[in-house]
Amino acid sequence: MSTVRAASLQRYPELMTALGCDVQDALMQCGLTLTDLAMGDQYISYQSVLAAMQYPADHCGILDFGLRFAKEQGTDFLGPMRLMARHAATPYEALTDIAAYASFHSSAIRLELTECTDADSVSMHLWVDALEPYPQGAEHAASILLQLFLQSAEPSDYSAINITLPNAAISQDRVYLEHFGVLPTFSAQAVSVTLPHSLSRAPNSEANAHIHHITRRILMDFAATPVTGTIRTLKTLLVQSLPTDQLDLHAAARALGIHPRTLQRRLQSEGTSFEKLRDEARKVLFEKLILKSASLADLAQTLGFSDQSVLSRACKIWFGMTPRLYRQKALRDQRAEGK
Q1: Strands across the sheet with 109-116, in order?
Q2: What is the greatest pairwise CA distance in the chain?
Q3: Which of 76-85, 135-144, 265-274 has the highest mean pLDDT?
Q4: How far apart are CA 151 and CA 80, in angstroms?
Q5: Is the four-CA dihedral 149, 65, 240, 42 of positive or negative sign?
Q6: Contact 10, 140 (CB under 8 A)
Q7: What Å distances lie between residue 118 and 96, 161, 192, 317, CA to CA?
């Protein structure tokens, strides 16, 4: 499972509320909570974030949500990546840096910068696995790439050559023209933004070598050292993945961008293990779902237990009672709170 910084949904609740969408239901459907969004530097499921962006189009009929969301967000949610690009010497240097340190923001994306001197153009391609079912995420990504370029170029000189999107057109031509300045090429292999090569080399009036150096050093340190908050991030991934698939040690390590043995050693150094964290995640999810699951057998399967008897043993260890007794207690507590 690929991950992305929770900051990627910065201002999502505010925009959803303004558009009349049910943000609580949207997040619940995607396996997320407002608490997840509040901790911007933690890593959450990238697929959940894409699903959250898709929800307003599928359930509220807001077909240009990805474009609106990108406009609402700007690029501040990218943190040091945004500052690094903002103060680069040229737009080309900004895009080169973004491509080099994209893993800081997400393990799911790969950026490629391509120069074509014959056509006087430079293109940034964004490759993301399984992006096709989420056109809102694709259009949001294209808009953010364009904004990253614009913030280090003179707006009056700006002229995009082309925008490509992997999805079919879902909004009217005028919506795309107003947002991008050109009509995108649809059903392409990847998200991409193509700009004049000469413009990409133009001096950035806001270039600041000192700030650029500091932010690049932060990202270099991130690439060279363990992921911050491994335990917190892994707990979040486990809770989010249990209802849909069983996240094992190797899949968790891939999501965090490290080797399985490295993950094991890091957890051991912090006095825990993958098995202990998975057990804690099961306990958290059990408390969330005990009053929602139709049967204890279904709940046991959701939590990744081989059968209901294993769930019963785990529940006795967690709470000192059987699942049925815990459910009865939870119902009593719920009624008492409603009085």
Answers
A1: 109-116, 121-128, 191-196, 162-164
A2: 74
A3: 135-144
A4: 14
A5: positive
A6: no
A7: 20, 14, 19, 68
Instruction: Give the global pTM.
Output: 0.70
How far apart, in Å, are the Cα atoms of 98 and each of 20, 36, 109? 34, 25, 11
Of 15-19, 133-137, 302-306, where does mean pLDDT reach its minimum? 302-306
Domains of the chain: 3-223 (3.90.1520.10), 230-243+274-338 (1.10.10)
CB 285 within 8 A of CB 302: yes
State residue 162 phi and psi, 5-degree precision: -165, 155
pLDDT score, position 306: 84
Secondary structure letter of residue 6 according to DSSP: G
Q: Supply 311's token pair.
A: 């769930």
What is the rounded distance in angstroms from the CA atom of residue 188 to the CA atom of residue 210? 39
Tokens 């049967």 belong to 295
pLDDT surpassing 70 at residue 260: yes
